Every structure is written in C-alpha cells, then in structure tokens.
Amino acid sequence: MYFEYCSPILGPNSCPSSIPVILTLFMHNLVIIRINDLEIMKKLLLLFALTGISLGATAQDGIEIFISSHPGGSYTGSVSQANFATHDFSGETAEFTPIGQNEIVVDLHIENHTGETVSWIVSRRRVNEISSWTDFLCWGHETDNTGGLCIDAGSMDSSIYSMPSQTGVTIQDSEAGILAAHINPDQNAPGCVTYRYYVGTGAAPFTDSVDIEVCFSLNVDDNSQIELNVAPNPVNDFVKISSNGAEGSMIEIVDVFGNSVRTEMMDGASKTINTADLKNGVYFLRLIGEEIPITSKKIVVRH
C-alpha cells in the first residue's frame, strides 16, 4: 500500500507530497520507503508478495467483487444462498470444493464504483501451494463475449503472477470486469489451496482482492467415474458429446457469465448438438443427472 503523503513520524515537511511512500513492518520495526519511480514501486510490491511482507488480502472503497457463477465447484462458505449473489467478497475468502473430478471455474464480477474510468489489470497469488495443481485465468470487460484475455497455466506458473500494464481493461464507472479463475486440483494430491486474486492499475496492482480457497479430498465411495468426452474442441457448427453411463442426463451449455444458452437430453451414449448460432467465445458444457455428480467441460466456440 502506498500513500501520497509523508508519515508524521518524519515530520510534515519531510518529503514532497508527490513522492509515494510505502509503509510496512519489517522485524517489528516500521520501515518507510520513499520512491519516485512507480515502476520500481510495482516491482517492490511484487517482491513483498513473494516474501510474504505486507501483501495481504485487501478491500477498497469504490470496488466491489461478486461471484456470479462457479461451475464445477460447490460453495461451502458461510454466506447464505439467499445473499450469495449480492454479497461483496472484497477482502474476504470464498470456500469451494470440486464437484466430481473437475476443473473449478469461479467467475468474479468486479464492479467499478470509483467515480472514474479505470484501466484495471489482475494478479494472482498462491497463498499456499500443492505443486501438481494448476490454474489459469481470463480477464475482460463484462460485455466481452469471448471471455477476454486468457493467460495459460504455463505462463503464470509461479507463486505470484501480475498481468502487464498494457493488458489493462478499460472500465467506466458503474461498469464491471469479469475475472474467470480456473483451478484444476490434482486428483492424486488432495488438500486445500488458497488463491488470492487482486485487481488494480499498473501503478497500484494490489488495490483490492478476494481469496478463493479450494479443498479437495479423495472419497473411496465416490461413484463419479463418469467420463465426458467432447469433440471437436474448439467447436465450429456442431459438437459431439459422449459419456459412459449418462443416458437420460441433461446437457447444459452456459456462457462465461453463467447464462444457460442451450439444454439437450442425453438420449444414449452420445449426442450431437448444433452450435452454429453461438457466438465465438468460451462456454462450459455440463452433464447433469440424478444418479451422477454434475460433470463439466470447457469448450471454445470458434467459427
């Protein structure tokens, strides 16, 4: 966190008001760092994140973070279902468990109420890690049907990842961006991992945040050996779905905002669905049945 005024400890005239100041606790002593280069300040903040110094969860007036959907995951936190859609998770933790053996996608609806037009980037920090788990994210404006810019798991395979300043998304006051957090637990490595997602500008990338905690445990009684195969993917005009033991289940396709755009019944072991009228972008295909857990698969429509 930086402030554009000097600490009273140094006196009212100790430094020019235009020079940002970083205050942090180090070895129980207050350390004050004056910096006249915002790029250096950003790098120092990243260093603090890596070393665990003063880069915790944050909440900021003018920014609200809502969870619009979470395909592949079941919410296990304390917020009631009635209040979930309108609850601001800024600076808080939202807990999830996987449904079956699937990727969890948590869609964060990040609203701008600062009174200004902003160019926001997002960052991700693994507060704790299981090395074999993977994750990636997509970030874009709420009106971007393609899901925005996606950063693959290989490109952000580090404890902290921050998008470059030039990839910022312009968001006017009262508009929002969508951050889709994709988390893939390793089925052979149960445990809990917390991912902290930040939003901010290139100069102050860690303005607000939310923690997503995912806990996965093996269940020897789990009858979720349902395989969902999709081809081709990327999808053009048609997609063929095949699955074992899923006859009579419902197939639902939802967009990145959680809206259902297609529902079909699985009449047999396979089903072909017409996707010619779907816009280009990222969707999630879900298999829903009474005797099976909800199973999901990400598809990309590209005409």
Structure, explained:
- It contains two helices and 22 strands.
- With 303 residues, it is mostly beta strands.
- It folds into three domains: 50 residues, no CATH class; 154 residues, Immunoglobulin-like; 74 residues, Immunoglobulin-like (Sandwich).
- A hairpin with a 6-residue loop joins strand 21 and strand 22.
- The protein is globular and about 55 Å long.
- The N terminus is likely disordered.
Number of H- or I-type helical stretches: 2
Q: From N to C, what is the helix and strand string? A: EEEHEEHEEEEEEEEEEEEEEEEE
Helix/strand class: mainly beta
Principal-axis shape: globular
Low-confidence stretches: 1-38, 49-54, 219-224
How many structural domains can be distinguished in the coordinates?
A: 3
Ends apart, CA distance between termini:
45 Å
CATH T-level topology of the largest domain? Immunoglobulin-like
Provide the CATH top-level class of the largest domain.
Answer: Mainly Beta
Task: Bin the strand percentage.
Answer: 35-45%
Overall CATH architecture of the largest domain? Sandwich
Give the biggest beta sheet. Answer: 7 strands, mixed
Quantity of strands, as a count: 22
Portion of residues within helices: under 10%
Q: CATH homologous superfamily of the largest domain, by name?
A: ntegrin, alpha v. Chain A, domain 3
Mean pLDDT across the residues is 78
Any idea what the radius of gyration is?
A: 22 Å
